[in-house]
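Propose amino acids for all 89 sites.
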């Protein structure tokens, strides 16, 4: 977590106008604080208190790997070799 570009701890005080950067599952969210909330509120009410400046996530290219049906069990040795051949191993 970063506040205005500097690393911070969870107890850091924020003020309106601050920029908060949060790393979520390998992707960074950039939020600007518009106003503070005195107590916990729902997600709908909280969304009115910040502006999200996060760029859109890049779309991962489809690799064209074969997909097994859910519950089909382990791949056979032939299936595994075919998958490795497609991956280039």
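Proposal:
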């Amino acid at each position: 977590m970063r506040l205005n570009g500097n690393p911070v701890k969870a107890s850091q005080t924020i003020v309106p106008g601050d920029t908060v950067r949060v790393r979520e599952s390998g992707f960074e969210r950039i939020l600007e604080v518009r106003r503070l909330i005195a107590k916990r509120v729902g997600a709908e009410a909280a969304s009115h208190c910040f502006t999200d400046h996060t760029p859109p996530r890049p779309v991962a290219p489809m690799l064209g790997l074969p997909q097994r049906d859910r519950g089909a069990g382990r791949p056979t040795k032939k299936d595994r070799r075919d998958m490795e051949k497609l991956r280039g191993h």
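The mean pLDDT is 87. The first strand starts at residue 2 and ends at 3.
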